[in-house]
């Protein structure tokens, strides 16, 4: 549409609706498309380009649309953009010959009625594109996108405003410019907020992955368990969502649901970060701070000593008599104790265990020893 003062009420409604749409959209690429498409619609522009400023101080092509040529590149569904970024500085000098770079460097809107008659900027690339496609690039409106911190994060450029009645290419009016500047400001604030939210999300994701990695590194026995669970969880969730028959045919998950499930997968073992290594490792049955099998060995030695003392007492009673039963009984008891000790040691490292066997080993001996074994 061609904007006039009579269109102000409708214009304000459109700007409000754009603000609501920008705030509600969470997908970055879709958000960029909304910004460019609404700007084109409100000025009846045939084409437009949206650039974002990079950390390398360049302007990267994010979306390029030209309706009359059927060009849709970038964004959520467009073809990949192969254009090189526009440098803001060339060989140490500000790039004032490119209209998009100049808009950023001067922080001002540039409204050009006819690119072919303009002598301030270099439109050689535009002429080459027109010659190749048969297009005629004429009116340009280039608006820097400034956020709430007065930082220029990108450029919104519209091409060839059309008269709604005749279809002829016209100059972007002063009201067109004000509308696009307002939209660009809203868009810049929304993009910055979205980038901050995304940065916080990435920081949180990195933090939970660091916790999971720390748990995996804490014990070699976990063998990457915390890293594998979220991957397997994602695979199971996707498989359930893809099922079109059976009890799970109506099951579905939103992107937010899948993200929550993925976070749960990463954090499912987070409690182990404060769990003692002996508990996490589970190297032996009796291990706490130390492996208490040595205590069991000591108690078996005490039992063997008591058996030897009892045998010697019996020998003293039968002194002078030819009775070798005490020696045989001692030998049998010592062998039984050695067998029981080896069995306990085997159980401690996870071998075949039998509670009945442990209890039978404990029965002939004093209660204080049997209680220690059972515990």
**Tally of helical segments:** 12
CATH superfamily of the largest domain: GAF domain
Number of domains: 3
Percentage beta strand? 5-15%
Task: Tell me the major beta sheet.
Answer: 8 strands, antiparallel
Q: pLDDT under 50 segments (min length 5)?
A: 367-375
- Write the element-wise H/E pattern from the N-terminal end onward: HHEEEEEEHEHEEEHHHHHHHH
The 3D shape can be described as rod-shaped
Structural class: alpha+beta
Q: What does the radius of gyration come to?
A: 40 Å
**Structure summary, number of beta strands:** 10
Annotated CATH topology of the largest domain: Beta-Lactamase
Report the CATH architecture of the largest domain. 2-Layer Sandwich
CATH class of the largest domain: Alpha Beta
Helix content: 40-55%
- First and last CA, distance: 85 Å
Query: What is the overall pLDDT average?
Result: 82
Structure, briefly:
The chain has 375 residues and is α+β, with helices and mostly antiparallel strands. It has helices at 8-24, 28-43, 99-106, 124-133, 174-218, 225-242, 255-267, 277-281, 293-317, 325-348, 355-362, 367-374; strands spanning 45-53, 58-66, 71-74, 86-87, 89-90, 93-94, 110-112, 140-146, 152-162, 169-170.
Characterization of the model:
This protein is α+β, with helices and mostly antiparallel strands and 375 residues long. It has three domains: 5-195, Beta-Lactamase (2-Layer Sandwich); 219-281, no CATH class; 293-374, no CATH class. It is 53% helix and 14% strand. It has twelve helices and ten strands. The chain has helices at 8-24, 28-43, 99-106, 124-133, 174-218, 225-242, 255-267, 277-281, 293-317, 325-348, 355-362, 367-374; strands spanning 45-53, 58-66, 71-74, 86-87, 89-90, 93-94, 110-112, 140-146, 152-162, 169-170. The strands form two sheets. Strands 1, 2, 3, 4, 7, 8, 9 and 10 form an eight-stranded antiparallel beta sheet that branches. A two-stranded antiparallel ribbon has the order 5-6. α1 (8-24) packs antiparallel against α2 (28-43), α1 runs parallel beside α5 and α9 (293-317) runs antiparallel to α10. The longest helix is centred in the middle third of the chain and has 45 residues, at 174-218. It is rod-shaped, with a radius of gyration of 40 Å. The N and C termini lie far apart (85 Å). The relative contact order is 0.07. Residues 367-375 have low confidence and may be disordered.
């Amino acid at each position: 549409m061609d904007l006039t003062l009579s269109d102000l009420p409708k214009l304000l409604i459109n700007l409000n609706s754009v603000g609501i749409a920008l705030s509600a959209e969470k997908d970055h690429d879709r958000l960029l498309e909304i910004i460019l498409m609404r700007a084109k619609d409100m000025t009846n522009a045939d084409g437009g380009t949206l650039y974002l400023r990079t950390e390398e101080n360049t302007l990267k092509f994010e979306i390029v649309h030209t309706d009359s040529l059927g060009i849709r590149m970038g964004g959520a569904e467009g073809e990949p953009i192969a254009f090189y970024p526009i440098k803001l500085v060339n060989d140490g000098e500000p790039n004032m010959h490119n209209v998009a770079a100049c808009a950023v460097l001067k922080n001002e809107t540039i409204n050009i009625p006819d690119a072919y008659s303009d002598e301030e900027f270099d439109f050689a690339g535009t002429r080459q594109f027109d010659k190749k496609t048969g297009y005629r690039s004429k009116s340009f409106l280039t608006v820097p996108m400034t956020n709430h911190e007065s930082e220029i994060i990108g450029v919104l450029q519209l091409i060839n405003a059309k008269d709604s009645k005749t279809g002829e290419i016209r100059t972007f009016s002063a009201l067109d410019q004000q509308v696009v500047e307002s939209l660009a400001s809203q868009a810049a604030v929304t993009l910055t907020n979205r980038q901050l939210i995304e940065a916080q999300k990435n920081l949180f994701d990195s933090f939970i992955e660091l916790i999971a990695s720390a748990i995996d590194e804490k014990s070699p026995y976990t063998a990457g368990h915390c890293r594998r669970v979220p991957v397997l969880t994602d695979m199971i969730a996707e498989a359930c969502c893809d099922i079109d028959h059976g009890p799970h045919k109506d099951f579905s998950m939103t992107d937010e649901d899948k993200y929550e499930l993925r976070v749960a997968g990463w954090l499912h073992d987070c409690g182990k970060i404060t769990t003692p290594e002996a508990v996490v490792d589970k190297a032996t049955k009796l291990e706490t701070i130390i492996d208490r099998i040595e205590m069991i060995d000591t108690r078996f030695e005490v039992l063997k000593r008591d058996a030897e003392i009892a045998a010697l007492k019996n020998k003293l009673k039968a002194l002078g008599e030819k009775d070798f039963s005490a020696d045989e009984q001692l030998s049998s008891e010592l062998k039984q104790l050695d067998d029981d000790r080896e069995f306990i040691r085997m159980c401690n490292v996870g071998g075949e265990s039998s509670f009945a066997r442990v209890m039978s080993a404990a029965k002939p001996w004093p209660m204080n020893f049997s209680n220690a074994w059972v515990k």
